[in-house]
Give the backbone structure.
Amino acid sequence: MDLSQPVEENYANPKTCFFHVLFKASALAFYMLSTLFADSFVIIFVITVVLAALDFWVVKNVSGRILVGLRWWNEINEQGESIWRFECLDHESLARINQKDSWLFWWTLYLNAVAWTIFGIFSLVRLEVDYLLVVGVCLSLAIANIIGFTKCRKDAKNKIQAFASRTIASRFSSTLQSAFSLV
Amino acid sequence: MSNSHSDTIPLHPSNSQSDIDEIRSLIDDSVHSGPAVVLPARHPASTPPPSSSPFISSNIPPPPPVSSSSSLQKLQSVPAAPPPPPPVGNSSSIVANGFGPPPNTLTEPVLDTVKRDLWRIVSNLKLVVFPNPFREDPGKALRDWDLWGPFFFIVFLGVALSWSASVKKSQVFAVAFALLAAGAVILTLNVLLLGGHIIFFQSLSLLGYCLFPLDVGALICMLKDNVVAKVIIVCLALAWSSWAAYPFMSLAVNPNRKALALYPVLLMYLSVGFLIIAID
Protein backbone atom coordinates (compact mmCIF):
# COMPACT_ATOMS: atom_id res chain seq x y z
CA MET A 1 0.00 0.00 0.00
CA ASP A 2 1.26 3.44 -0.94
CA LEU A 3 1.13 5.66 2.10
CA SER A 4 1.40 8.86 0.12
CA GLN A 5 -1.90 8.20 -1.66
CA PRO A 6 -5.22 8.18 0.17
CA VAL A 7 -6.29 4.55 0.77
CA GLU A 8 -5.38 3.18 -2.66
CA GLU A 9 -5.64 -0.56 -2.26
CA ASN A 10 -4.95 -3.13 -4.85
CA TYR A 11 -6.48 -6.54 -4.92
CA ALA A 12 -4.95 -8.55 -2.15
CA ASN A 13 -5.64 -11.89 -3.82
CA PRO A 14 -5.47 -11.33 -7.56
CA LYS A 15 -5.31 -15.01 -8.49
CA THR A 16 -8.31 -15.91 -6.40
CA CYS A 17 -10.26 -13.00 -7.86
CA PHE A 18 -9.28 -14.16 -11.30
CA PHE A 19 -10.57 -17.68 -10.73
CA HIS A 20 -13.67 -16.32 -9.06
CA VAL A 21 -14.54 -14.44 -12.21
CA LEU A 22 -13.11 -16.93 -14.70
CA PHE A 23 -15.65 -19.71 -14.45
CA LYS A 24 -18.62 -17.40 -14.26
CA ALA A 25 -17.49 -15.46 -17.30
CA SER A 26 -16.64 -18.57 -19.30
CA ALA A 27 -20.00 -20.19 -18.53
CA LEU A 28 -21.82 -17.05 -19.65
CA ALA A 29 -19.57 -16.59 -22.69
CA PHE A 30 -19.84 -20.21 -23.74
CA TYR A 31 -23.60 -20.10 -23.47
CA MET A 32 -23.79 -16.90 -25.52
CA LEU A 33 -21.38 -18.03 -28.21
CA SER A 34 -22.45 -21.63 -28.16
CA THR A 35 -23.70 -21.66 -31.70
CA LEU A 36 -20.24 -20.75 -32.91
CA PHE A 37 -18.61 -23.63 -31.08
CA ALA A 38 -20.85 -26.61 -31.24
CA ASP A 39 -23.88 -27.81 -33.08
CA SER A 40 -24.98 -30.27 -30.52
CA PHE A 41 -27.17 -29.06 -27.67
CA VAL A 42 -25.87 -31.85 -25.48
CA ILE A 43 -22.34 -30.56 -25.62
CA ILE A 44 -23.48 -27.00 -24.95
CA PHE A 45 -25.52 -28.16 -21.99
CA VAL A 46 -22.83 -30.32 -20.48
CA ILE A 47 -20.03 -27.80 -20.84
CA THR A 48 -22.07 -24.84 -19.61
CA VAL A 49 -23.41 -26.73 -16.63
CA VAL A 50 -20.00 -28.15 -15.77
CA LEU A 51 -18.49 -24.66 -15.86
CA ALA A 52 -21.31 -23.36 -13.68
CA ALA A 53 -20.82 -26.20 -11.23
CA LEU A 54 -17.06 -25.59 -11.08
CA ASP A 55 -17.79 -21.94 -10.44
CA PHE A 56 -20.15 -22.89 -7.62
CA TRP A 57 -17.47 -25.02 -6.01
CA VAL A 58 -14.75 -22.40 -6.40
CA VAL A 59 -16.90 -19.63 -4.96
CA LYS A 60 -18.14 -21.71 -2.08
CA ASN A 61 -14.86 -23.26 -1.07
CA VAL A 62 -12.05 -21.05 -2.25
CA SER A 63 -13.00 -17.46 -3.00
CA GLY A 64 -15.57 -17.26 -0.25
CA ARG A 65 -12.95 -18.20 2.29
CA ILE A 66 -10.18 -16.09 0.89
CA LEU A 67 -11.92 -12.97 -0.36
CA VAL A 68 -14.55 -12.40 2.29
CA GLY A 69 -13.76 -14.88 5.02
CA LEU A 70 -17.15 -16.57 5.01
CA ARG A 71 -18.13 -20.19 4.76
CA TRP A 72 -21.42 -22.04 4.87
CA TRP A 73 -22.41 -25.67 4.76
CA ASN A 74 -25.07 -28.11 5.77
CA GLU A 75 -24.86 -30.86 8.34
CA ILE A 76 -27.18 -33.57 9.47
CA ASN A 77 -26.96 -34.12 13.19
CA GLU A 78 -27.50 -37.20 15.28
CA GLN A 79 -31.25 -36.71 15.41
CA GLY A 80 -31.41 -36.65 11.66
CA GLU A 81 -32.18 -32.97 11.36
CA SER A 82 -30.51 -30.80 8.82
CA ILE A 83 -28.63 -27.80 10.15
CA TRP A 84 -27.12 -25.00 8.14
CA ARG A 85 -23.85 -23.82 9.56
CA PHE A 86 -22.31 -20.45 8.93
CA GLU A 87 -18.82 -19.51 9.78
CA CYS A 88 -16.74 -16.38 9.52
CA LEU A 89 -13.40 -14.97 10.50
CA ASP A 90 -13.19 -13.09 13.75
CA HIS A 91 -13.92 -9.41 13.52
CA GLU A 92 -10.32 -8.24 13.46
CA SER A 93 -9.58 -10.36 10.42
CA LEU A 94 -12.85 -9.31 8.86
CA ALA A 95 -11.90 -5.68 9.27
CA ARG A 96 -8.63 -6.47 7.58
CA ILE A 97 -10.24 -7.88 4.48
CA ASN A 98 -9.41 -6.02 1.32
CA GLN A 99 -12.32 -3.84 0.26
CA LYS A 100 -11.70 -4.33 -3.41
CA ASP A 101 -11.70 -8.08 -3.04
CA SER A 102 -14.94 -8.04 -1.19
CA TRP A 103 -16.52 -5.59 -3.64
CA LEU A 104 -15.54 -7.79 -6.57
CA PHE A 105 -16.81 -10.89 -4.84
CA TRP A 106 -20.29 -9.59 -4.10
CA TRP A 107 -20.81 -7.68 -7.31
CA THR A 108 -19.79 -10.53 -9.60
CA LEU A 109 -22.05 -12.83 -7.61
CA TYR A 110 -25.06 -10.57 -8.16
CA LEU A 111 -24.25 -9.70 -11.76
CA ASN A 112 -23.87 -13.37 -12.60
CA ALA A 113 -27.36 -14.12 -11.32
CA VAL A 114 -28.78 -11.11 -13.17
CA ALA A 115 -27.12 -12.19 -16.42
CA TRP A 116 -28.53 -15.69 -16.17
CA THR A 117 -31.97 -14.27 -15.44
CA ILE A 118 -31.76 -12.16 -18.58
CA PHE A 119 -30.74 -15.18 -20.61
CA GLY A 120 -33.64 -17.04 -19.10
CA ILE A 121 -36.06 -14.35 -20.16
CA PHE A 122 -34.65 -14.45 -23.68
CA SER A 123 -35.03 -18.18 -23.99
CA LEU A 124 -38.50 -17.99 -22.47
CA VAL A 125 -39.54 -15.43 -25.03
CA ARG A 126 -38.14 -17.58 -27.81
CA LEU A 127 -39.80 -20.63 -26.27
CA GLU A 128 -36.56 -22.61 -26.29
CA VAL A 129 -37.28 -25.03 -23.50
CA ASP A 130 -33.97 -26.85 -23.91
CA TYR A 131 -31.98 -23.72 -23.23
CA LEU A 132 -34.32 -22.79 -20.42
CA LEU A 133 -33.12 -25.96 -18.73
CA VAL A 134 -29.51 -24.84 -18.94
CA VAL A 135 -30.35 -21.40 -17.65
CA GLY A 136 -32.42 -22.90 -14.85
CA VAL A 137 -29.56 -25.04 -13.60
CA CYS A 138 -27.00 -22.22 -13.75
CA LEU A 139 -29.39 -19.78 -12.12
CA SER A 140 -30.17 -22.13 -9.27
CA LEU A 141 -26.46 -22.63 -8.59
CA ALA A 142 -25.88 -18.88 -8.59
CA ILE A 143 -28.83 -18.20 -6.30
CA ALA A 144 -27.75 -20.93 -3.90
CA ASN A 145 -24.39 -19.26 -3.45
CA ILE A 146 -25.94 -15.82 -3.04
CA ILE A 147 -28.37 -17.00 -0.39
CA GLY A 148 -25.69 -18.96 1.45
CA PHE A 149 -23.21 -16.13 1.60
CA THR A 150 -25.79 -13.47 2.44
CA LYS A 151 -27.03 -15.54 5.37
CA CYS A 152 -23.44 -16.10 6.39
CA ARG A 153 -22.72 -12.39 6.33
CA LYS A 154 -25.78 -11.62 8.44
CA ASP A 155 -24.76 -14.30 10.87
CA ALA A 156 -21.27 -12.83 11.02
CA LYS A 157 -22.65 -9.38 11.80
CA ASN A 158 -24.82 -10.80 14.57
CA LYS A 159 -21.88 -12.64 16.04
CA ILE A 160 -19.73 -9.53 15.97
CA GLN A 161 -22.40 -7.49 17.68
CA ALA A 162 -22.94 -10.16 20.28
CA PHE A 163 -19.24 -10.46 20.94
CA ALA A 164 -18.80 -6.71 21.11
CA SER A 165 -21.62 -6.29 23.58
CA ARG A 166 -20.34 -9.19 25.67
CA THR A 167 -16.85 -7.75 25.67
CA ILE A 168 -18.13 -4.32 26.64
CA ALA A 169 -20.26 -5.82 29.39
CA SER A 170 -17.42 -7.90 30.78
CA ARG A 171 -14.97 -5.01 30.65
CA PHE A 172 -17.51 -2.76 32.29
CA SER A 173 -18.09 -5.22 35.10
CA SER A 174 -14.37 -5.80 35.58
CA THR A 175 -13.76 -2.06 35.68
CA LEU A 176 -16.52 -1.70 38.25
CA GLN A 177 -15.08 -4.49 40.33
CA SER A 178 -11.60 -3.06 40.22
CA ALA A 179 -13.01 0.35 41.10
CA PHE A 180 -14.83 -1.11 44.08
CA SER A 181 -11.83 -3.10 45.18
CA LEU A 182 -9.76 0.06 45.28
CA VAL A 183 -12.31 1.88 47.38
CA MET B 1 -13.13 -18.94 16.09
CA SER B 2 -13.31 -18.60 19.81
CA ASN B 3 -9.74 -19.71 20.30
CA SER B 4 -8.58 -17.00 18.00
CA HIS B 5 -10.15 -14.43 20.25
CA SER B 6 -7.73 -15.52 22.87
CA ASP B 7 -4.88 -14.79 20.50
CA THR B 8 -5.96 -11.38 19.45
CA ILE B 9 -7.35 -9.73 22.55
CA PRO B 10 -4.65 -7.25 23.54
CA LEU B 11 -2.97 -7.52 26.89
CA HIS B 12 -3.44 -4.63 29.21
CA PRO B 13 -2.04 -3.91 32.65
CA SER B 14 -4.65 -5.10 35.07
CA ASN B 15 -5.01 -6.65 38.42
CA SER B 16 -5.85 -10.27 38.97
CA GLN B 17 -9.58 -9.67 39.35
CA SER B 18 -10.05 -8.35 35.82
CA ASP B 19 -7.81 -11.14 34.56
CA ILE B 20 -10.17 -13.63 36.09
CA ASP B 21 -13.11 -11.85 34.49
CA GLU B 22 -11.35 -11.90 31.19
CA ILE B 23 -10.71 -15.60 31.46
CA ARG B 24 -14.32 -16.14 32.42
CA SER B 25 -15.56 -14.18 29.43
CA LEU B 26 -13.24 -16.13 27.17
CA ILE B 27 -14.57 -19.38 28.52
CA ASP B 28 -18.09 -18.10 27.95
CA ASP B 29 -17.13 -17.20 24.40
CA SER B 30 -15.77 -20.62 23.68
CA VAL B 31 -18.84 -22.27 25.19
CA HIS B 32 -21.29 -20.11 23.27
CA SER B 33 -19.58 -20.16 19.96
CA GLY B 34 -18.59 -23.77 20.33
CA PRO B 35 -21.09 -25.26 17.88
CA ALA B 36 -19.86 -23.03 15.13
CA VAL B 37 -16.37 -24.32 15.60
CA VAL B 38 -17.00 -27.98 16.23
CA LEU B 39 -16.87 -29.82 12.98
CA PRO B 40 -18.57 -33.08 12.12
CA ALA B 41 -15.89 -35.58 12.92
CA ARG B 42 -18.43 -37.91 14.46
CA HIS B 43 -19.52 -39.69 11.34
CA PRO B 44 -17.79 -43.03 11.25
CA ALA B 45 -17.27 -43.10 7.54
CA SER B 46 -15.91 -39.63 7.09
CA THR B 47 -12.25 -38.86 7.32
CA PRO B 48 -11.33 -36.48 10.13
CA PRO B 49 -10.88 -32.88 9.06
CA PRO B 50 -7.29 -32.55 7.99
CA SER B 51 -6.14 -29.59 10.01
CA SER B 52 -8.34 -28.81 12.92
CA SER B 53 -5.25 -27.61 14.74
CA PRO B 54 -5.09 -24.28 12.88
CA PHE B 55 -7.99 -23.11 14.92
CA ILE B 56 -5.75 -23.15 17.93
CA SER B 57 -2.44 -22.12 16.44
CA SER B 58 -1.85 -18.49 15.85
CA ASN B 59 1.24 -17.83 13.79
CA ILE B 60 0.73 -18.99 10.29
CA PRO B 61 1.60 -16.31 7.77
CA PRO B 62 -0.01 -16.99 4.43
CA PRO B 63 0.53 -15.70 0.96
CA PRO B 64 -2.71 -16.05 -0.97
CA PRO B 65 -1.03 -16.84 -4.30
CA VAL B 66 0.09 -20.16 -2.89
CA SER B 67 -3.47 -21.20 -2.20
CA SER B 68 -4.60 -20.04 -5.62
CA SER B 69 -1.84 -21.98 -7.30
CA SER B 70 -2.96 -24.99 -5.36
CA SER B 71 -6.44 -24.52 -6.74
CA LEU B 72 -4.78 -24.40 -10.16
CA GLN B 73 -3.10 -27.70 -9.40
CA LYS B 74 -6.43 -28.98 -8.19
CA LEU B 75 -8.02 -28.09 -11.50
CA GLN B 76 -5.31 -29.79 -13.45
CA SER B 77 -5.29 -32.86 -11.30
CA VAL B 78 -9.01 -33.54 -11.57
CA PRO B 79 -9.85 -32.77 -15.17
CA ALA B 80 -12.40 -35.48 -15.71
CA ALA B 81 -13.67 -35.89 -12.21
CA PRO B 82 -17.03 -34.41 -11.33
CA PRO B 83 -16.96 -31.10 -9.54
CA PRO B 84 -16.40 -31.82 -5.89
CA PRO B 85 -19.36 -31.35 -3.58
CA PRO B 86 -19.78 -28.64 -0.97
CA PRO B 87 -17.51 -29.72 1.88
CA VAL B 88 -18.92 -30.71 5.17
CA GLY B 89 -16.59 -29.34 7.74
CA ASN B 90 -13.52 -28.21 5.92
CA SER B 91 -11.94 -27.13 9.11
CA SER B 92 -8.77 -25.52 7.97
CA SER B 93 -10.35 -22.84 5.84
CA ILE B 94 -11.05 -20.16 8.36
CA VAL B 95 -8.09 -19.87 10.64
CA ALA B 96 -9.14 -16.71 12.33
CA ASN B 97 -5.96 -15.43 13.79
CA GLY B 98 -5.69 -11.91 12.48
CA PHE B 99 -2.80 -12.65 10.16
CA GLY B 100 -5.07 -13.45 7.23
CA PRO B 101 -5.85 -16.79 5.67
CA PRO B 102 -3.02 -19.30 6.08
CA PRO B 103 -1.51 -20.53 2.86
CA ASN B 104 0.45 -23.45 4.23
CA THR B 105 -2.64 -24.95 5.69
CA LEU B 106 -4.73 -23.70 2.80
CA THR B 107 -2.49 -25.27 0.20
CA GLU B 108 -2.99 -28.63 1.72
CA PRO B 109 -6.67 -28.24 2.34
CA VAL B 110 -7.72 -27.29 -1.15
CA LEU B 111 -6.25 -30.50 -2.45
CA ASP B 112 -7.43 -32.27 0.64
CA THR B 113 -10.88 -30.85 0.14
CA VAL B 114 -10.96 -32.20 -3.37
CA LYS B 115 -9.76 -35.58 -2.23
CA ARG B 116 -12.16 -35.63 0.65
CA ASP B 117 -15.08 -34.63 -1.53
CA LEU B 118 -14.23 -37.25 -4.11
CA TRP B 119 -13.91 -39.79 -1.35
CA ARG B 120 -17.30 -38.76 -0.04
CA ILE B 121 -18.87 -39.46 -3.41
CA VAL B 122 -17.32 -42.91 -3.47
CA SER B 123 -18.36 -43.71 0.07
CA ASN B 124 -21.91 -42.49 -0.48
CA LEU B 125 -22.10 -44.63 -3.55
CA LYS B 126 -20.88 -47.65 -1.65
CA LEU B 127 -23.36 -47.00 1.14
CA VAL B 128 -26.33 -46.66 -1.14
CA VAL B 129 -25.77 -49.12 -3.88
CA PHE B 130 -23.79 -51.95 -2.35
CA PRO B 131 -24.70 -54.18 0.58
CA ASN B 132 -23.46 -52.76 3.84
CA PRO B 133 -24.48 -52.81 7.51
CA PHE B 134 -25.79 -49.23 7.52
CA ARG B 135 -28.62 -49.85 5.14
CA GLU B 136 -31.11 -50.46 7.90
CA ASP B 137 -30.76 -46.94 9.19
CA PRO B 138 -31.32 -44.48 6.37
CA GLY B 139 -30.52 -41.45 8.45
CA LYS B 140 -27.09 -42.72 9.26
CA ALA B 141 -26.26 -43.98 5.84
CA LEU B 142 -26.50 -40.79 3.84
CA ARG B 143 -25.52 -38.41 6.60
CA ASP B 144 -22.92 -36.69 4.45
CA TRP B 145 -25.17 -36.19 1.49
CA ASP B 146 -23.80 -34.49 -1.55
CA LEU B 147 -25.37 -33.63 -4.85
CA TRP B 148 -22.34 -33.95 -7.08
CA GLY B 149 -22.51 -37.72 -7.41
CA PRO B 150 -26.16 -37.58 -8.48
CA PHE B 151 -25.37 -34.69 -10.83
CA PHE B 152 -22.65 -36.68 -12.50
CA PHE B 153 -24.83 -39.80 -12.78
CA ILE B 154 -27.75 -37.92 -14.29
CA VAL B 155 -25.56 -36.18 -16.84
CA PHE B 156 -23.83 -39.45 -17.67
CA LEU B 157 -27.14 -41.21 -18.20
CA GLY B 158 -28.33 -38.39 -20.44
CA VAL B 159 -25.13 -38.49 -22.47
CA ALA B 160 -25.28 -42.28 -22.79
CA LEU B 161 -28.89 -42.19 -23.96
CA SER B 162 -28.17 -39.36 -26.33
CA TRP B 163 -25.18 -41.21 -27.75
CA SER B 164 -27.23 -44.32 -28.42
CA ALA B 165 -29.95 -42.34 -30.13
CA SER B 166 -29.56 -42.00 -33.87
CA VAL B 167 -31.99 -39.13 -34.21
CA LYS B 168 -33.14 -36.23 -31.99
CA LYS B 169 -30.10 -36.52 -29.77
CA SER B 170 -30.57 -33.22 -28.04
CA GLN B 171 -34.19 -33.90 -27.27
CA VAL B 172 -33.34 -37.27 -25.79
CA PHE B 173 -30.77 -35.69 -23.53
CA ALA B 174 -33.06 -32.89 -22.44
CA VAL B 175 -35.92 -35.26 -21.76
CA ALA B 176 -33.75 -37.64 -19.76
CA PHE B 177 -32.22 -34.87 -17.69
CA ALA B 178 -35.50 -33.09 -17.02
CA LEU B 179 -37.28 -36.34 -16.23
CA LEU B 180 -34.69 -37.38 -13.69
CA ALA B 181 -34.23 -34.00 -12.07
CA ALA B 182 -37.91 -33.15 -11.84
CA GLY B 183 -38.71 -36.73 -10.92
CA ALA B 184 -36.32 -36.69 -7.99
CA VAL B 185 -37.80 -33.45 -6.68
CA ILE B 186 -41.37 -34.65 -7.08
CA LEU B 187 -40.65 -38.00 -5.45
CA THR B 188 -39.12 -36.24 -2.48
CA LEU B 189 -42.14 -34.00 -2.18
CA ASN B 190 -44.29 -37.07 -2.37
CA VAL B 191 -42.55 -38.62 0.62
CA LEU B 192 -42.73 -35.38 2.56
CA LEU B 193 -46.42 -34.93 1.81
CA LEU B 194 -47.13 -38.48 2.89
CA GLY B 195 -45.93 -37.46 6.32
CA GLY B 196 -42.57 -39.10 5.96
CA HIS B 197 -39.42 -38.00 7.72
CA ILE B 198 -36.77 -37.40 5.20
CA ILE B 199 -34.54 -34.49 4.51
CA PHE B 200 -35.05 -32.92 1.10
CA PHE B 201 -31.45 -32.93 -0.07
CA GLN B 202 -30.74 -36.29 1.45
CA SER B 203 -33.54 -37.80 -0.56
CA LEU B 204 -32.45 -36.07 -3.77
CA SER B 205 -28.96 -37.37 -3.15
CA LEU B 206 -30.24 -40.88 -2.55
CA LEU B 207 -32.38 -41.02 -5.66
CA GLY B 208 -29.46 -39.78 -7.68
CA TYR B 209 -27.06 -42.37 -6.32
CA CYS B 210 -29.57 -45.15 -7.00
CA LEU B 211 -29.21 -44.26 -10.67
CA PHE B 212 -25.78 -45.81 -10.70
CA PRO B 213 -26.97 -49.33 -11.70
CA LEU B 214 -29.02 -47.84 -14.52
CA ASP B 215 -25.95 -45.91 -15.62
CA VAL B 216 -24.01 -49.15 -15.80
CA GLY B 217 -26.89 -50.74 -17.69
CA ALA B 218 -27.08 -47.87 -20.16
CA LEU B 219 -23.34 -48.06 -20.74
CA ILE B 220 -23.52 -51.76 -21.53
CA CYS B 221 -26.53 -51.24 -23.76
CA MET B 222 -24.63 -48.56 -25.61
CA LEU B 223 -22.05 -51.16 -26.54
CA LYS B 224 -24.32 -54.10 -27.29
CA ASP B 225 -27.19 -53.70 -29.70
CA ASN B 226 -29.16 -56.93 -29.26
CA VAL B 227 -32.68 -56.20 -28.01
CA VAL B 228 -32.99 -59.33 -25.90
CA ALA B 229 -29.67 -58.69 -24.23
CA LYS B 230 -30.74 -55.11 -23.60
CA VAL B 231 -33.97 -56.22 -21.95
CA ILE B 232 -32.13 -58.61 -19.66
CA ILE B 233 -29.47 -56.08 -18.71
CA VAL B 234 -32.02 -53.37 -18.07
CA CYS B 235 -34.13 -55.70 -15.94
CA LEU B 236 -31.11 -56.55 -13.82
CA ALA B 237 -30.14 -52.90 -13.50
CA LEU B 238 -33.70 -51.99 -12.58
CA ALA B 239 -33.84 -54.67 -9.90
CA TRP B 240 -30.57 -53.45 -8.45
CA SER B 241 -31.73 -49.82 -8.44
CA SER B 242 -34.97 -50.70 -6.74
CA TRP B 243 -33.18 -52.82 -4.15
CA ALA B 244 -30.89 -49.88 -3.44
CA ALA B 245 -33.71 -47.37 -3.07
CA TYR B 246 -36.08 -49.60 -1.11
CA PRO B 247 -34.79 -49.34 2.48
CA PHE B 248 -34.45 -45.59 2.48
CA MET B 249 -37.82 -44.86 1.00
CA SER B 250 -39.74 -47.44 2.94
CA LEU B 251 -38.26 -46.55 6.30
CA ALA B 252 -38.96 -42.89 5.80
CA VAL B 253 -42.73 -43.22 5.82
CA ASN B 254 -45.44 -44.86 7.84
CA PRO B 255 -45.64 -48.63 7.15
CA ASN B 256 -49.20 -48.27 5.82
CA ARG B 257 -47.97 -45.83 3.21
CA LYS B 258 -44.87 -47.68 2.17
CA ALA B 259 -46.32 -48.71 -1.16
CA LEU B 260 -47.50 -45.18 -1.89
CA ALA B 261 -43.99 -43.89 -1.43
CA LEU B 262 -42.22 -46.71 -3.22
CA TYR B 263 -44.43 -47.09 -6.26
CA PRO B 264 -43.54 -43.76 -7.92
CA VAL B 265 -39.85 -44.43 -7.41
CA LEU B 266 -40.10 -47.78 -9.12
CA LEU B 267 -42.18 -46.20 -11.85
CA MET B 268 -39.55 -43.56 -12.51
CA TYR B 269 -36.75 -46.08 -12.74
CA LEU B 270 -38.93 -48.27 -14.94
CA SER B 271 -39.50 -45.42 -17.37
CA VAL B 272 -35.77 -44.74 -17.50
CA GLY B 273 -35.26 -48.44 -18.19
CA PHE B 274 -37.74 -48.26 -21.04
CA LEU B 275 -35.88 -45.29 -22.44
CA ILE B 276 -32.68 -47.29 -22.39
CA ILE B 277 -34.26 -50.24 -24.17
CA ALA B 278 -36.21 -48.22 -26.66
CA ILE B 279 -33.40 -45.97 -27.80
CA ASP B 280 -31.68 -47.24 -30.90
